[in-house]
Structure formats: structure tokens, C-alpha cells
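Question: Hello, beginner here. Any chance you could explain the protein record under this note? Any guidance would be welcome.
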Amino acid sequence: MNKQIFKSTSPQYEFWNSNQDIEAEEKRILKLNPNGIAADLFKHEPYKWEILYQSILLELRDGKLTAIKGLSILLNSLKIDEKNKIINKLKEKNLLPLEIIEMVSNNDFNNSNERINLCRYMKILIAIFTNPYGIQIKAKRKRIYEHSGFLFNKLRKENI
């Protein structure tokens, strides 16, 4: 399973591939919808937002409809034109079933039969600390999971 399949659909793709300097950070923040539920996460914790984004897309690809609400919340932290760009990329690249993309686009997660799933939360928590998507953190690392994610990525690149 290729964990980096959704990488280029991320609204932060250019940021992760930049020097992650002030200018790149400002450009990333311009994509923000300050009224979105996950706006603070996108603004202040881009690494965690990215891990959630990648993890949720993998779940949706595997047919887990309970992840629709999560993706809708993440995408609603973006300006509408940015959200539409992502939805269009997902459609163009045929990365998710069309009916799932439409549900996310319409914020239709009422039929997702959502329930608390401890295993799902643990997998995402582990992903936040181990960075399985190879996100390159070049900016100053402020949180413990950013440090561990950086370290795991570095070790993975060195094949240790």
C-alpha cells in the first residue's frame, strides 16, 4: 500500500516541498478559512493536520465511510476555492470513489454511521508520532510529535 498516494492533493504540498520559511508559511496560511472547525489545527499545527488528512484519505480509499466527517471538517478549514481544488484533484486522479467525493463535497456525513473506534484513534496517534507519510519538517519543531516524526522520517531515509 502506497502511503504517499494522496501527497500531491494536499493544500500543504507546496509548503512541505519548500524551505518552510516565513514566506512559504504566509502562502500556506492564505488558504485558511478562519471560521472552520479545524482552522486552528491547520494554522498552528500543519504537521498534525497533514497526518490526519493523509490518514483519513487512506481510510476513505479503503471504504471506511466513518472518515467522511473527518475529511469534511479538515477541508472546511480551507477557503472554498482551496477545498474545491482538492476535490477536483481527487476526482481527476480517480483516488477515491466518486460517491465518497460527492459526500465530502456536500458535507454529507450523516449516513457515515460514525461511532467511536479506539483502534482508529490509536492508528492516527501512532501515525502522528511516527510520520509514515514521509512529511519533511524543515521549520522549527515545537511539539514532541514533530520531533519524533522528524526523527522517524530521517531514520527511514537512512534505512535504519
Q: What stands out?
A: The CA atoms of residues 37 and 77 lie 6 Å apart. Residues 7-112 form one domain. The chain has a mean pLDDT of 89.
